[in-house]
């Protein structure tokens, strides 16, 4: 087997092992940030058990689209996309018997992840110290807006709030616009989730080496501030504040300095191509291929400093040339000349119009008891020996109750029925 | 820096980082977790040293603030991997390394085949972080971070609905590398974890394009299930239908994002009380708004239009910091739209120790950096020592560890193979 074969890459052999095979994760996550983390852990082979409660369901279980009709809590495509490869149990953590069961589960688990506001687990009686009393090797991840320490630990965020506070929103937009464009989705929900996954896998490795667990305290805003180094250091070192003429720079380059570096219109409605010449050699090849070789000798465009000084004229001329051309054909033509160029694709393009994704079988058809046959998206890390997987659809609410309560925790059917009766389960 | 006796999550792990700027963030993540990351630089230095901003705006090999950040905590060995002698030295180093990180596109001129290297050294984890992966028709496409964000999907959701004819907008600061960097670092950690039980390494193929393809939130399920594209909108989520604006200007010329409207009645009443204490927002007492569904953004409801009109008026009459603090105290997850420099004025981040000071002794400066993306209680994240000077550790590694004599090193240097 080669490591780069298209598709899932899962060998037929029963000996298949994923990298996190044998790792059990208790998943108290909701919305997008926490589930992004546990989706990646699940793809990597961890057994992820979502702890849910019928009275306080994750609102993503109601999130659109509902491809086979609105029938929550199991009909959401958004939930199925974000929570694949996970199991689901239903417990009321606020009930003392429910809490006791969760503590039992902690004893047989490796990781506990949550992304509630900073005091929720503490209020339930599941602080890190209380988790350690059950399992001193547990790896506990709290993912909140502001972290569990500091004067604003009780403030809260959503993805867009965190992006705004981190500085990221301000750094995306057109310079002359009255407001930044920011991010058109909760970028920091994803990034905070990835940050958590990186920390967890590193902590698992440390634990296997030393036997030591730990508490990983994440602040979503901090995960964003950690991605603003250029602008932050320009301030701390050069004393330059971000708010100045020309910022945010639209689609022009910041660093490395490059020109042309912009989006240009192509044929059709709202179609665009990004062209970036990151070196003089690329610029020269671009001029050759562009039917405008004279651009190269035009003193306004001959050198990078000149192009930067005359960027408005440069962009206007290139835009006049691209307008009306087929974007994908133009991309191919520029790429054939080794010029960095790419059409702006949206999510739909990735699924239906992207030959690269198609060649690598980025989507695959899977089944779901309510949604039915559907497309699931790719595995981003292709391991040559221990492949990740995407075999399991998102869990129907409570589908693993028997497995967890009976097989894992050893409760009898009578005990389970009693716990249902008294409100600890469900 | 104070002496720190903590263990590190990746203590004892050595990474040979052959990456260009596409992979510098991945290496930084591993260094932050405690790995010994050795950046293998080509003669003349990594292209990362030419990425600004620069100290006092003067470019120079040791003046790139990009490099200071993204190479922080790493060591530098200069080796020409395209020469036989350089590659030979590298392969010797690889024998005692745990991880090799590389970013060469597979069909372009690359000094070694990463799959063959992984087969040759079965305990080694070799990660190829490339724009499109090791296979497929675009695998050798010429690339930049912005082209990556355009093709990969993130940019398609960002832009303006209220300025006609404007293009999608790509957020600045190397985010294609950031997104893929987390996948790559997680993949490496997972492979190292697996190696602890199997004793075996492997090859990891990470396509930056595929990493971005997941990282587009609801655009993905709308495409996967409904083949439905989303409308990009200024300062808020792209959606299947237009939604109300979230960003409102304040009296002091800043902007507030109001996305986090209270869900509970108690929190809503608390927010209304705060707004009305400033003498505005009479209509927010409308009983209809006591019903949380009538406050829900995104559905173009008349009740929300009325609510937002009063909120906009209140925001326009007050100052940003006061609005932010008052709304958060009421349980509304509103925020100020800050610039990165403004974050340094917020005491909360200092109380958590987010910003870290690092000595750059050559320049006689202590430099404040953005710090830990995570607080690990037992194995803290570290910035580590300042970014390495070009070839600062070549001699340490080649003579001190590999056992080359100073004469042998001098010959490599004279031949332009090492520096």
How is the main sheet of chain B built? 6 strands, parallel
Sheet with most strands: strand arrangement of chain B: 3-2-1-4-5-6
Strand content of chain A: 5-15%
CATH architecture of the largest domain in chain B: 3-Layer(aba) Sandwich
Using the 3D structure, state the CATH architecture of the largest domain in chain A. Answer: 3-Layer(aba) Sandwich
Report the total helices of chain B.
Answer: 15
The H-level CATH homologous superfamily of the largest domain in chain B, spelled out, is Crotonobetainyl-coa:carnitine coa-transferase, domain 1
Through-space gap between termini of chain A: 45 Å
N/C terminus separation of chain B: 29 Å
Q: Largest beta sheet of chain A: what is the strand line-up?
A: 3-2-1-4-5-6
Q: What would you call the shape of chain A?
A: elongated
C-alpha-based Rg of chain A, rounded: 25 Å
| Overall mean pLDDT of chain A | 95
Provide mean pLDDT of chain B, rounded.
97
Oligomer: heterodimer
**How many β-strand stretches of chain B?**
14
Question: Which tags fit this structure?
Answer:
heterodimer, A: about 425 residues, alpha/beta, Rossmann fold, formyl-coa transferase, domain 3, 2 domains, six-stranded parallel beta sheet, three-stranded antiparallel beta sheet, 18 helices, about 15% strand, elongated, disordered N terminus, B: about 425 residues, 15 helices
Describe this structure in words.
- The complex is a heterodimer of chains A (426) and B (419).
- By secondary structure, chain A is of the alpha/beta class.
- Chain A has two domains: 24-226 and 363-421, Crotonobetainyl-coa:carnitine coa-transferase, domain 1 (Rossmann fold, 3-Layer(aba) Sandwich); 261-352, formyl-coa transferase, domain 3.
- In chain A, 37% of the residues lie in helices and 13% in strands.
- In chain A, strands 3-2-1-4-5-6 form a six-stranded parallel sheet. In chain A, strands 7-8-9 form a three-stranded antiparallel sheet, covered by helices on one side. A two-stranded antiparallel ribbon of chain A has the order 10-11.
- Chain A is elongated and about 85 Å long.
- The model of chain A is unreliable at 1-13 (pLDDT under 50).
- With 419 residues, chain B is of the alpha/beta class.
- Chain B has two domains: 14-214 and 351-414, Rossmann fold (3-Layer(aba) Sandwich); 242-249 and 255-336, no CATH class.
- Chain B is 35% helix and 15% strand.
- Chain B has helices spanning 21-32, 65-70, 84-95, 114-120, 145-152, 175-198, 208-214, 219-226, 265-276, 302-316, 320-329, 340-343, 347-351, 394-401, 406-414; strands at 14-17, 36-41, 75-78, 99-102, 125-130, 202-207, 231-233, 236-239, 247-249, 255-260, 333-336, 356-360, 365-369, 375-376.
- A six-stranded parallel sheet of chain B has the order 3-2-1-4-5-6, sandwiched between helices.
- In chain B, a hairpin with a 4-residue loop joins strand 12 and strand 13.
- Chain B is elongated, with a radius of gyration of 26 Å.
- The model of chain B has no long low-confidence stretch (mean pLDDT 97).
- Chains A and B meet through helix 2, helix 6, helix 7, strand 6 and helix 8 of A and helix 2, helix 5, helix 6, strand 6 and helix 7 of B.
